[in-house]
Design goal:
This protein is α/β, with parallel strands linked by helices and 442 residues long. The protein contains 19 helices and 11 strands. The chain folds into 3 domains: 163 residues, P-loop containing nucleotide triphosphate hydrolases (Rossmann fold, 3-Layer(aba) Sandwich); 176 residues, no CATH class; 80 residues, 3-Layer(aba) Sandwich (Trna Endonuclease, Chain: A, domain 1). The protein is 50% helix and 15% strand. α4 runs parallel beside α6. The longest helix has 31 residues. The protein starts with a helix and ends in a 5-residue tail after the last strand.
Length: 442
Amino acid sequence: MQRLQDIQRQAYEDYSRFVVLTGRRRVGKTSLVYRLMEETKELAPSLYFFVGRKTEAALVKTYCEEVRSKLDEYVPEGISSFRDLVQLLLEIGKRRRFTLFIDEFQEFEYVNAEVFSDMQDLWDRYKKVTNVCLIVSGSIFRMMEKIFKDEEQPLFGRDDCTIKLQPFTTKTMREILGDYKANYTNEDLLALWTITGGVARYVEQLMNSRCTDVKKMLHYVCSGGDSFFIEEGKSVLVQEFGKQYGTYFSILDQIAHGDVTQSEIEASLGVNSLGGQLKILEEKYDIIKKKRPVGAKEGSQTVRYEIQGNFFLFWFRYIHRYSSLIEIQNMPALEKIMMDDYPTFSGIALERWFRQKMMESCRYKIIGGWWKPGGVNAEGKSDKFEIDIVAETLEGEVEAYEVKRNPKKISSARLQEKVEMMQRHQYRGKEVKMAGLSMDEM
């Protein structure tokens, strides 16, 4: 909000500014700009244009009514092109200041793709002689990236600022839950984080329904075919993936259930090479990311994949995998599967919680994990070594953490053994601070 207010002030006092606001669906982009418009309405009026998949003429007709209502300006009848309307607005912007918010901007691709070229032309001509704060937002990552980050696109480099709105911080999650349940437990907090990952709309759904513990939350998720959460993953991701969503869903399902290397995913799906699809999921859609052991070189093959965002991980682990139960409305069975698996799944989310908390502290230059692939030794025991979190502070100090829900399951001796193995490969001769992290430290 502070960043938006600063840019808006610059636009009003100096000359027009162009802001691109991105972030996944449900993260709160529209609500944030609405709040900005409300809090600064004494400074200047604001316009809101939503880009739906209608004809250009139908959209422009709605926008003209918004201009007449909010700016109290004369708008000639018969304007049917977005270009003509924007030019009219920029002419108005020469003599008065206002904010224009265009929501789901990427949808112009389906309405009239020439809009992007038209806006580039008009913005270049009018920017320095007007006082308009232009904010455009979009929730389809690949399309917003293409529009503003592809050098071949007309609007490349035209934005003054890009804000990628992130889910709530761990601190904010604690504050929100505390507002609804003053005596909440860390188990309650972990459940809220496990299911929502801090995404504003999901948090809002659970809190407004007074679901403040794990049983209530999972029951709400499984509350029949009309449950908001059941269709959510599909409705969000099908928009991103388009017709290819079946293949991508199969890959994400396997990752959510523990196949985290390319060879494991390919073996489970019976496919020879998925390298191209994995690259697209990572680079084009930003829904998975590569993990390498701390200290591994960029090109090393010791790569694991993880799904970004707790909600998508949750959705693929339960909703997508058990869609047959949802088809026959056996929601009690789905709820039981979730509850039985919750201690394991929330343990994964707990590790993510601590990584996120460490990132927010801004104390570190590296946060990751470390592992050494292994097999079975002569005694029949696994010789695989893995440390949940390895971090290096800005001062160069190294920290290693074992993460368990139950502190009694943390073995200092075993962590020491793992750290010694790591030091043979990484941080040789360097002191490593070791500790266990459990729900007690949330």
